[in-house]
Structures are given as C-alpha cells and as structure tokens.
Amino acid sequence: IWSIYLRHASIEDKESVRAWNSDIDSILIFAALFSAVLTTLLVESYQALQPDPQLELMRAILLQLQRGNEGAMVQDPVPAFELTGSAIRINIYWFSSLIISLAAALLDILAKQWV
User: Fold this and answer.
1) What pTM was computed for the model?
2) What is the pLDDT of residues 87-99, one digit of tens each?
3) Residues 49, 87 contacting (CB under 8 angstroms)
4) N or C: which terminus of the chain has fewer CB atoms within 10 Å of its end residue's CB?
C-alpha cells in the first residue's frame, strides 16, 4: 500500500513544484517589467525635486550683469526654486513602489531557489 501511495504522492509533488515554478516565473517577469517601467517614470519625476541647472545659471548671469551695471543691490527678477509638496509626495510613492517591487522580485528569487 505504501509503494502505491509514494508513487502517487511523488507524481503529485512533482506537478505541484512545476506549477509553483511557473507561477514564480510569471511573477518574476511581471516584477521585472514593472520595475523597469517604474524606473523610467521615476527618472522623469525625480527632476522635479531639483532646480533646472540652466535656469540657475541664467539667473546668476542676469544677477551679475545687473549688479555690474548699477553697482547696487538688485532684486532678483526670477523667483528662487521652490520644492512643491506634490512633487515630494509623487516621488515618495514612486520610490516606495520601486522598493516594494524589487523586494517582491528578491522574495521570488529566494522562493525559486527554495523550490
């Protein structure tokens, strides 16, 4: 009786492991694609957290020219860079999503090695 049970259990276990492997592969592919797309969005969104270097250079040149011509303190015509709350929140969400996605991929790799 045990030999029959072991044979059926072995077949059942192999099918379960095969199914788990295919599920883990699918999740791993999705996590990789999601992380890649998220990274491209994050690169674009991250720029909102930093001042534009060309604008800052032009601002400095304009200020220097105005000071040189008038010799006195001149008020800055271009407002200084201000970080908006929405830019911070959006980048927090993007970075959190990327961290969670990469953690899921890491767990999938560990699960695949275990299976």
Assistant:
1) 0.68
2) 899 999 999 999 9
3) yes
4) N
